[in-house]
């Protein structure tokens, strides 16, 4: 069972469930953590942050970056989504649960390379296309297109007829790229640019459909309309904060 609590309701660092996630439902960084826990079959308590009003628990748990997501495992906080994914994979490792990272060191290195590439290129361009951060919209659109073209090629080369980047099941890179899909779809509505074009990206769009349908993903991937609404709300919150400073 998944419990939903407000951060203020969480007692302290040592309280609550064994596994807690401080996050925001719409955050692609947080979605990664939810998907990884679901893939491993780990029950968790979801502590939803209020946008624009960071909880004491978040500030205490991630005092350096003050960002979500944070995984709290038996009271111990772990920050940074990609580090959290690796932690989850190491802690819940047995023959009965799927592995997130592949066994082969070279495959692992490739997946980490592409995961970092995705966060360096897609995440910053996406917030420009969403109007959350100021920047050159055409340049941002071109950056996303180039990144997706590289991923299309990488999937065709690495996937070798497999369903996912991770092979027959989703893995590290699937989770990292897949977490961006909701916002990429929302960007198409918000900015009016086609980013997931199936004629240009046949492998990637087919992979995206499989990813969305996966049992660990379907319940935590927000609907595009909700993300579009959330984006407008986020922009309002940021504007109000900027004008009050
Ligand atoms: N590199 C971090 C990025 C996390 C991040 O940027 N989180 C955003 C929400 S999507 C956040 O907490 N922003 C609040 C802020 O920047 O103050 C990760 O992978 O976890």
TrEMBL record:
<dbReference type="InterPro" id="IPR036249">
    <property type="entry name" value="Thioredoxin-like_sf"/>
</dbReference>
<feature type="domain" description="GST C-terminal">
    <location>
        <begin position="104"/>
        <end position="234"/>
    </location>
</feature>
<dbReference type="InterPro" id="IPR004045">
    <property type="entry name" value="Glutathione_S-Trfase_N"/>
</dbReference>
<dbReference type="InterPro" id="IPR045074">
    <property type="entry name" value="GST_C_Tau"/>
</dbReference>
<dbReference type="InterPro" id="IPR010987">
    <property type="entry name" value="Glutathione-S-Trfase_C-like"/>
</dbReference>
<dbReference type="Pfam" id="PF02798">
    <property type="entry name" value="GST_N"/>
</dbReference>
<feature type="domain" description="GST N-terminal">
    <location>
        <begin position="17"/>
        <end position="96"/>
    </location>
</feature>
<dbReference type="GO" id="GO:0009407">
    <property type="term" value="P:toxin catabolic process"/>
</dbReference>
<dbReference type="InterPro" id="IPR040079">
    <property type="entry name" value="Glutathione_S-Trfase"/>
</dbReference>
<dbReference type="GO" id="GO:0006749">
    <property type="term" value="P:glutathione metabolic process"/>
</dbReference>
<keyword id="KW-0963">Cytoplasm</keyword>
<keyword id="KW-0808">Transferase</keyword>
<comment type="similarity">
    <text>Belongs to the GST superfamily. Tau family.</text>
</comment>
<dbReference type="InterPro" id="IPR036282">
    <property type="entry name" value="Glutathione-S-Trfase_C_sf"/>
</dbReference>
<dbReference type="GO" id="GO:0005829">
    <property type="term" value="C:cytosol"/>
</dbReference>
<dbReference type="Pfam" id="PF13410">
    <property type="entry name" value="GST_C_2"/>
</dbReference>
<protein>
    <recommendedName>
        <fullName>Glutathione S-transferase</fullName>
        <ecNumber>2.5.1.18</ecNumber>
    </recommendedName>
</protein>
<dbReference type="InterPro" id="IPR045073">
    <property type="entry name" value="Omega/Tau-like"/>
</dbReference>
<dbReference type="GO" id="GO:0004364">
    <property type="term" value="F:glutathione transferase activity"/>
</dbReference>
<comment type="function">
    <text>Is involved in the conjugation of reduced glutathione to a wide number of exogenous and endogenous hydrophobic electrophiles.</text>
</comment>
């Amino acid at each position: 069972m998944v419990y939903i609590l407000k951060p203020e309701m969480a007692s302290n660092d040592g309280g609550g469930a064994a596994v807690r996630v401080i996050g925001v439902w719409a955050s692609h960084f947080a979605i990664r953590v939810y998907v990884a826990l679901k893939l491993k079959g780990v029950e968790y308590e979801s502590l939803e942050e209020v946008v624009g009003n960071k909880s004491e628990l978040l500030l205490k748990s991630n005092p350096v970056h003050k960002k979500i997501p944070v995984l709290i495992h038996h009271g111990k906080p772990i920050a940074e989504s990609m580090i959290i994914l690796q932690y989850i994979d190491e802690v819940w490792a047995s023959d009965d649960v799927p592995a997130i990272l592949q066994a082969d060191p070279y495959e692992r290195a490739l997946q980490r390379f592409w995961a970092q590439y995705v966060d360096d290129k897609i995440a910053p361009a996406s917030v420009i296309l969403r109007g959350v951060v100021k920047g050159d919209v055409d340049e941002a659109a071109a950056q996303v297109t180039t990144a997706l073209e590289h991923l299309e090629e990488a999937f065709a080369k690495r996937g070798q007829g497999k369903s996912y980047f991770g092979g027959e099941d989703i893995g590290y890179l699937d989770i990292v790229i897949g977490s961006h899909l909701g916002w990429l779809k929302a960007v198409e509505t918000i900015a009016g640019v086609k980013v997931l074009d199936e004629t240009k990206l046949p492998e990637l769009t087919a992979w995206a459909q499989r990813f969305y349908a996966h049992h660990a993903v379907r319940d935590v991937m927000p609907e595009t309309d909700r993300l579009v609404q959330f984006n407008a709300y986020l922009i309002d919150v940021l504007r109000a904060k900027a004008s009050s400073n």
